[in-house]
Design brief:
transmembrane helix; alpha/beta; single chain
């Protein structure tokens, strides 16, 4: 606190605090207009450092990028074309584009190397003057010369870092931009090779490999050998031929170090393979978390991730072994080479004096860093070669081609067509072990321009694939395709982004209020927007997780309609909406004024609308039959017989005026009252703070605490092992450094004894004997030092890897057991960022920095003790110089910590857009929005790199000041040595200067590493945040975890369910989505739940699984309150077929039975029941056939049938079917209904459905509207009540199916 008061009074006397509410993010970087002096000492960044010290920085405080680093300029103007004919094409390309042109970085690094060679020569002259035992101006001038050479060298190093960062940022921004642009062009085969996990790993791990290599190592790899050679030449000058033997040892050791670096690189490459797989699985876990929870499969997926994490850590341990061997060799090499040099120097009969000894010691001290950095540079280039190869292979991956003739004009009598075409999902490169589905052997299709074409057929017949073929999204092996270029598309599983409802509909198009209102009304979004807290500005969760299936479909349809394209391609948008809304959509959207004159191609199972189509394409017995409704009827296709399957009551019971009602409704003159809410009163054009707060779903990512992360240090220390273990490692570092610096003291004694011997004119033989004695002691000290280095490296490495394992596993468990609301409020990219960037920091980057800190701290402690022992008078001045160190770091660290936190937070949106884009590639490409998404990626990436740039520029600001203080310490120590020259033992004075010189370097390096590690500890802090997120109530993923209520193995035995005044809300601040629901279900009853889309049907079903917790009331199953039992006990005893089916990557068997609980016979039996046996039988490896993430190659209907198979295998007493037949054709749906009746007859079945024929034979019908129970009775009783909601739905259903 005292230091803070001093800083505030002196340093901030004239500083004016910036208004925290002022948005300064448009302020140009002061670096662009800074003077030479300001750039030399980094004073241009001082205002930002002061601001960060006074209060936490905000984004508005950060300057814009310097002009030279702006991404558009870097990528568009500077990147150019990569020549893949060269060796290492990507690396050589970046050298040509960004390194050779960076003259300042090369210049400053060259100056630093020259100064490192000059400094020992200056020090030699200073020692000569000390040995004269006379105080002279000449000696003082050499002190000043030593100070100047040291200062110029250290300042040049800092500027070399800064300008090297320019190349690094240019490389990273170019690389990430090009990786993203390539992703937008991936075809289906390439997508099967490159999952989102692999692509994110390329951006994170491989991108960082390029970043850090092109920061320093790209130049040092060439300059460090020059520096080493120059220092060795100086060594020859000082010790003569003896230096050659030291040089030989060094030359021999360098290839050994290179070999170790190569082996470490191989291990790193192997670890990346498992890391890719781990991230892909975590991405799946995040995307499918709702389904994992429904099935109680969390443990299975955690085990799958750990199966990848285990080998990853094993390869990382092997990599660490090679790293510690390399570091052992590097840190001991200078001492060993000095030992050998002095041995041969003595062997040749030379007398070792103080000048020779300590000049040689200074040379080897200066050699220490290049000897450490050169192997590091070699290791990084070897790692970079692996990363470069991965990215080059990715860049060479096949892309989606233009295989469509877009010459079709939107005029009468024109046709979109496919002629004699063959298509292949795998682009002709399918693997025998994976699902490989051709669309058809040969396909011919036509759709008249400006008309409505409807496509129907059974599940898996190829309807969706036909649409993708028309859009060029599946590889055409032969044939011809002609289509319109301007297309609006709705997929069967809608693609929605984590932004507002309006932004999802506009999708990059300009806002046209009139058209926007028309689209909202046409897509029946009135009531939905009325219910949304922020109206049309309400934020939608990633993938629409906070919306019902019908809402998602209608928003996607609204997007396609608003785009005002020539052609609308719609993949079953009516499947997830109720009968009234389906009719409204067909009349007003698909066949309404906004679509008039457009070419419309609609896939649907709603056959009642076929008579309104201008052209029909029917998949029948693997053949595509086409024509008008009348033409197909004449060919023997009896649509009416299929529709009769959907009849809910005998036709004789219908009113006489049904036909007039049909005609009246199809004219669009009557609408449900719900659909007539005035939409213009519900949209929000002027967004105020109130609306912003209400519309917000995604929570802001936390930046962490404002302290220096001490809690993170403690957490990391506890995760690695016991405190005693860590203290023992620290003791080994101090003991090792004490032994090492004792060797310097021994050298001072040795050199002083030689000076005495020389003056006493002792014989050469006695000198040789004396040298042998000193060499033996010196050798013992060096060998002891090497042993201690090895021991401390091994123990610290095990400690760090254990901490990495514990932190990752705890975070994985916490995230998996987090409530579903957590995944609504946090984009998947943000969560993946924790498991990629932050875990990588903990796995790999903390260890070397922690080792450096312990090394520097032990060196500083031992050096100060030695200096105090040699000359107690220097202790007080040293302590005085410590104060500026503390002040500078105290000022710098708050700014640096906040910038690091901001850098971590702004990285998450980059991962989020990668994740979203990968999921919505087809929609983005069809709507031709690639350039908009590229610009959005660049915007997010530039913000992240901008903060990264200023974070490390403030680092240079601090380091420059510390280096100046360090050079002053050297000047002060040399002045004391000259002024208090020890005439009897000049070696002591020389040792004091050498120790001060080395200690100040270690202080600067230690402060830098403490700052860097504090920044890395931000990753530990971020991981800890996710470790401590609230878990679902009573969470348990194993049978061993207790619940507050004992549950027998037979529970539920009967399947009785009772809802008691149940109310549910998703957020504490939101209105209840279910309100006061009370009803009972008896054992083995079949219950149908109906209601308008978004009314709360799915929420009611999910409350049974406690995916959402009750805010009041309770649910009892067989008399037991489900809120009092563990979630595993609850969910593992129930079964569910969700509305949006999800298929995980892996085998067919793994998707059906991850715990291997069932035999092959049981699985095949249930596959046959759900009509999938034929499909699986024709797969390459049957049950062991691998399916990629998301079930690529399977239709949505087939995915739903796989989910139904899961439910049948479980044989649960309670089964929830949530729109389980929404994507099934009528015939398959009829078969599945029969299966459910026969094989689930002893189970209580709750069916959520929009298609009334699915639930009309239920024992009871529950009607829900706006979260309230409206009706609950048998179907017959409800239909007998003329004014009941259900009877009106039935009448409407009859009208639509007439």
């Amino acid at each position: 606190m005292i230091i803070d008061r001093i800083i505030n009074k002196l340093y901030f006397k004239k500083y004016t605090l910036i208004d925290s509410y002022q948005d300064n993010n448009d302020i140009a970087s002061p670096e662009d207009s800074a003077t030479v002096i300001e750039k030399l000492f980094y004073t241009w960044i001082e205002s930002l450092v002061k601001k960060g010290y006074r209060s936490p920085l905000q984004l508005r405080d950060i300057y814009q990028f310097p002009r030279r680093l702006q991404i558009d300029k870097t990528v568009d103007d500077g990147f150019g074309v990569v020549d893949y004919g060269r060796r290492w094409p990507l690396i050589s390309h970046f050298y040509r584009k960004f390194t050779i042109t960076n003259h300042l970085a090369i210049g400053f690094k060259t100056i630093a190397i020259v100064m490192s060679i000059v400094t020992p020569l200056v020090f030699k002259q200073l020692l000569n003057s000390i040995q004269t035992n006379q105080l002279s101006m000449h000696s003082l001038m050499w002190c000043i010369a030593l100070f100047v050479s040291s200062l110029i060298g250290t300042m040049s190093v800092q500027h070399g870092y800064h300008w090297g960062m320019t190349s690094a940022i240019q490389v990273k921004s170019s690389l990430v931009s090009k990786i993203y642009e390539k992703m937008l062009r991936l075809n289906n085969y390439s997508k099967s090779l490159y999952s989102i996990g692999k692509i994110m790993n390329m951006v994170s791990a491989d991108g960082d490999s390029f970043l850090y290599y092109f920061w320093d190592n790209h130049i040092e790899l060439f300059l460090l050998p020059i520096q080493i050679t120059g220092l060795l030449i100086v060594l020859f000058y000082v010790v003569g031929l003896a230096g050659l033997f030291g040089f030989i040892v060094m030359v021999v050791m360098l290839p050994v170090n290179t070999f170790l670096g190569g082996r470490a690189s191989v291990c790193y490459r192997e670890s990346l393979v498992y890391n890719d797989d781990r991230l892909s699985l975590i991405s799946e876990l995040i995307n499918g978390i709702q389904f994992l929870k429904l099935y109680a499969w969390e443990k299975s997926f955690i085990d799958r991730i750990k199966e990848k994490r285990g080998p990853q850590l094993q390869w990382q341990w092997k990599m660490v072994i090679y790293w510690l061997l390399s570091n052992l060799l590097t840190q001991s090499l200078s001492a060993v080479v000095l030992l050998i040099t002095l041995f041969f120097y003595s062997l040749f009969g030379h007398q070792l004096d103080v000048t020779i000894a300590f000049t040689s010691l200074t040379i080897f001290n200066n050699l220490r860093k290049p000897l450490e950095f050169l192997p590091e540079s070699i290791q990084r280039i070897l790692k970079l070669l692996e990363s470069s190869k991965r990215i080059e292979d990715y860049f060479k991956a096949p892309e989606i081609g233009i295989e469509i003739d877009y010459e079709v004009t939107n005029t009468e009598n024109e046709e979109i067509y496919i002629k004699n075409a063959h298509f292949d999902w795998t682009d002709g490169k399918g693997d025998a072990s994976t699902l490989n589905t051709n669309v058809t052997k040969e396909i011919n299709f036509r759709a008249p321009v400006g008309k409505l074409t409807m496509i129907c057929g059974s599940v898996g017949s190829g309807k969706s694939s036909l649409l993708l073929s028309l859009m060029g999204e599946i590889h055409k092996t032969c044939g011809e395709v002609r289509s319109l270029k301007s297309v609006g598309y709705t997929s069967q599983q809608p693609f929605l982004m984590g932004c507002s409802l309006r932004e999802n509909i506009l999708f990059g198009k300009p806002y046209d209020r009139k058209r926007y209102l028309q689209v909202l009304e046409a897509c029946a979004l009135n009531l939905d927007i009325h219910q949304f807290p922020g109206r049309d500005q309400t934020e939608i969760g990633e993938r629409g997780l906070n919306l019902s299936g019908g809402q998602k479909q209608r928003i996607a349809l609204a997007r396609a309609l608003y785009a005002d394209c020539q052609c609308l391609i719609m993949d079953d948008p009516l499947s997830a909406v109720d009968t009234r809304v389906a009719k409204h959509l067909f009349i007003n959207a698909i066949n309404g004024p906004l679509a008039e004159g457009k070419t419309r191609i609609l896939v649907t199972h709603q056959l009642q609308y076929l008579s309104s189509a201008d052209h029909i394409a029917l998949f029948h017995n693997d053949t595509l039959i086409q024509g008008t409704y009348e033409e197909l009827s004449q060919k023997g296709i009896n649509f009416q017989s299929i529709l009769d399957l959907k009849r809910l009551r005998p036709e004789s019971e219908e009113d006489d005026d049904d036909q007039s009602l049909i005609d009246h409704e199809l004219d669009g003159n009557t609408h449900d009252h719900d659909l007539k809410i005035p939409i213009d009163s519900l949209i929000v054009d002027q967004v105020d703070d109130g609306h912003m707060e209400m519309s917000k779903l995604i929570v802001e990512e936390e930046r962490g605490s404002s302290d220096f992360g001490y809690g993170s240090w403690l957490l990391y220390a506890r995760s690695g092992g016991s405190w005693y273990y860590f203290l023992f490692i620290t003791f080994l570092y101090v003991l090792g450094q004490l032994v090492f610096q004792s060797s310097d003291y021994w050298l001072a004694i040795w050199s002083q004894s030689k000076s005495t011997s020389l003056s006493d004119s002792q014989s050469l033989a006695s000198t040789a004997t004396s040298d042998s004695y000193y060499l033996k002691i010196y050798l013992i000290l060096i060998v002891s030092f090497i042993f201690l280095i090895g021991s401390r490296f091994v123990l610290l490495s095990r400690y760090a890897l254990n901490a990495a394992k514990v932190l990752h596993d705890h975070m994985l468990l916490s995230v998996t057991l987090a409530p579903c609301q957590f995944f609504l409020e946090n984009p998947s990219g943000r969560i993946l960022n924790r498991f990629s960037r932050d875990v990588t920091d903990i796995d790999i980057k903390i260890l070397p920095e922690l080792s450096d800190i312990l090394h520097c701290a032990s060196t500083i402690i031992v050096s100060m003790l030695i200096m105090a022992y040699l000359n107690p008078y220097i202790t007080l001045p040293l302590l005085v110089f410590v104060l500026p160190y503390v002040v500078v770091q105290r000022i710098y660290l708050p700014t640096s910590m906040e910038l690091k936190r901001m850098e971590a937070v702004t990285k998450s949106p980059v991962f989020s857009i990668l994740q979203e884009t990968y999921q919505g590639l087809i929609t983005i490409r069809v709507h031709q929005q690639q350039q908009r998404f590229i610009q959005e990626l660049r915007k997010r990436l530039e913000l992240n790199l901008r903060i990264f740039h200023f974070q490390y520029t403030t680092h240079r600001y601090m380091s420059m000041r510390l280096e100046i203080i360090s050079s002053l310490v050297v000047l002060f120590a040399s002045f004391i040595a000259v002024l208090q020259n020890n005439q009897e033992n000049p070696g002591i004075s020389s040792l004091m200067i050498t120790t001060a010189f080395g200690m100040t370097g270690f202080i600067s390096w230690g402060v830098k590493q403490v700052s860097d590690l504090s920044l890395k500890m931000n990753s530990v802090e971020r991981v800890n945040t996710y470790i401590n997120i609230p878990r679902e109530g009573g969470s348990g993923i194993s049978h061993e975890l207790p619940s507050s209520q004992q549950v027998s193995n037979e529970w539920p035995k009967n399947g009785n369910i009772e809802f008691k005044d149940l109310s549910v809300r998703y957020k504490n601040t939101s209105d209840p989505v279910l309100n006061g629901i009370t009803f009972s279900i008896q054992s083995q009853e079949k219950i149908g739940i109906v209601g308008r889309t978004g009314s709360g049907k799915t929420t009611l079903g999910f409350s049974l699984f406690r995916l959402v917790e009750a805010c009041s009331g309770q649910i009892e199953i067989d008399g037991q309150d489900i809120s009092q039992m563990s979630l595993y006990d609850l969910r593992s005893r129930l079964a569910c077929v969700p509305q949006d089916p999800f298929i995980f990557s892996g085998s067919i068997r793994g998707n059906l039975d991850p715990f291997n609980q069932f035999s092959d016979h049981e699985i095949w039996t249930n596959l046959e029941l759900v009509q999938l046996k034929k499909l699986v039988t024709h797969m390459p490896l049957k049950l062991n056939t691998h399916i990629s993430e998301g079930g690529s190659g399977l239709s949505v209907g087939q995915k739903q049938l796989f989910c139904l198979c899961r439910a049948l295998l479980r044989k649960s007493k309670i089964v929830l079917l949530d729109e389980s037949s929404a994507s099934l054709d009528f015939t398959t749906d009829s078969i599945i209904k029969s299966v459910i009746r026969n094989y689930l007859k002893e189970s209580t079945v709750i069916t959520v459905a929009h298609r009334l024929d699915t639930i009309i034979d239920s024992d009871k019908i529950l009607v829900i509207d706006q979260g309230q129970l409206i009706e609950f009775d048998s179907p017959q009783n409800l239909m007998n009540l003329k004014n009941s909601k259900f009877s009106k739905l039935v009448n409407a259903f009859h009208l639509h199916h007439k």
